[in-house]
Every structure is written in structure tokens, then in C-alpha cells.
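Quick one, T. Sequence first:
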Amino acid sequence: TSILHCLDNEMARPQVSIHGCEDGALISRQLALPAIFKAPIRPDVVHFVHSNIAKNHRQAYAVSKEAGHQTSAESWGTGRAVARIPRVRGGGTHRAGQGAYGNMCRSGRMFAPTKTWRKWHRRVNRKMRRYAICSAVAASALPALLMARGHKVDKVAEVPCVIEAGVESFTKTKQAVTLMKAIGAYDDVEKAKESRKVRTGVGKIRNRRHTMRKGPLVIYKEDNGITQAFRNLPGVTLLNVTRLNLLHLAPGGHLGRFCIWTETAFKALGEIYASNTLPRDMMKNADLTRIINSDEIQRVVRPAKAQRRPAIKKNPLKNINVMVRLNPYAKIAKRAATLALLKRAKARAVAS
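C-alpha cells:
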């Protein structure tokens, strides 16, 4: 029964075409899409895991613990109409009497001098790391995310892009270039090559002079020369399928890296990330509005209550209608006052 269930799952999944390693043409053999490509895509988890594990290759740095204190200085105390900052001893030089030690002083120490025992590295839960890798792999199968990330995949037949196992025996860069052109992935390599520019900022004098965009990620199972063949292509990164790294699958924490899989690596995905160990969606249908407005939900919810807006209190002294409701005689009194005013105005006009 379990074998039949597995067969049903494989038949239910879409099939992925395989490119030949010689000419890049699609061959008749196909592979079932591994279950990992159905994993939920969670940009929030990927960003959190990436930003934390990216800190784990940092090296400690700090200023010298003696910096700013390599002089003899003492405060002059109060009563001399100067600040109480420590001042350099002695005389006969400009330095004597100058403020020292404080972070506001010339040649003083910095505020809160950095220490090497800062918390440089971050621990991330294993399940969360696994979740992030599954999301990154699943996102690599969506052309929209690949193009949104800037990859040139217009000429690629389909993603995920799978190549025959013989590519793992390539040893020459010429073979790799020919294959990349045949499968339509060389445009992405060219994009990375043309993007190489001198870094802005001080990093250019710290052994990271140039920046370059990311190209395709080649994932293999057995290194029979494939790393030697592809390593010199601009922007191309190589990974072993047993050691997938989120820093390469989602550079910068952004989903949608263009991945090129070897046939053996693609098959191994199903064994490494079995369907019963993958993260699951919290909601099968994420369209909350559609769920709430569905007949099944609306049939059992209480009808919406009519909302009575609170009455706005109006000032009777400024609003005659409100005054009449409070004092019906106010209308007669106002009319009488108006007629009296008109009568006096008429009398003054006749007298003049």
C-alpha cells in the first residue's frame, strides 16, 4: 500500500524535463518534481534566518584598550574657571593643559570602546534553518520570482532547470560555456560579468574592491570535475546538494535564485527532504476574504448589528430648532423681537 501511495504521489506531481549534457537539448526522460518544491514560501522566515546566520562569519574587532589613555592627566578641580575634564600635566608645550581621556577631547578615547567579547555570532533553530532552505528552494521554481530578482531566464526552457548527470564530469570551462549557451542560461552569466564595478565607499581599500551581481547557482551531487569547469564563470556559484546554504540560495535574504540542478542532485532532493519532514502551510487557502464571505461561514455567523450613531449635541443658543424643542415659546419671542427691530428701524427712517 505504501509503495502504491508513493507511486500515486509521484504521478500526481508535475514532471520536469531534463537537458542533455552534450547539446543542451531536452531528452525524452523526465523526473517527478520533488516534494520540497511544494513547501510554503515564507519571505519573513528566510529574511530572519539569513540576517542571523550571515553574522556567523564575522571576525572580532576592537580598538586598543590603551587608546586615549596613553598620557598622564589629572583634573585641575574647581575654582579655576575651566572644565573639570582631566588635563595633561607639565608645561612648555601646546599639549600641556589640554583636555584628555574624554570622548569629547582631541586624542581622547572613543565613547564605550569596542570590545572583542561582543556577541558576534547568532544561534538559529535547526527547524527554522531547514524551513528557510525549503522556502528558498521552492521559490527557485517560480519564474516570476527569478525575474523579479533580476535573473535573465527568458531563453531557459523551464525552471527548475535540470541537466543530465554527465555534466558532473565536466572539467573544462569551454564545456561549461557551451552548455550554458545551449540551455539559455548564459545571458545570466553575461549579466553578472557586465555588472562588475568598483565598490563605493571605504571597502575598496579593504580587499573587496569590486562588486558583482549573482548569476546561476549550479547544484551537484558528486564533484567529478564540475567545480573546476564552472568556477571561473562570472557570478556562478556551486553547491553540493547535501550541503545547501541559504546564503547562496537566497542572497541578501531575497528569494528567487536561478538554480541549475544536475540530475543526480535533483533526485537526491526527494531523499534529503522527504515529504513527511517538510514544513506545512498554516492555512491551505490564504485568501481570508474569500473564506469569510463563503456561504458556509456566512450561514452560521450572526447577522450584522445596525450601528446607531450617537447624536451630536447641538447648542440651543446657536440653533433655533433645538431651542424650539426645548422652549416652544422661543419661536414667538424671536419673531416678536425681529418685528420690533424692524419697527424701530422704520421709525428712525421716517424721523430723519
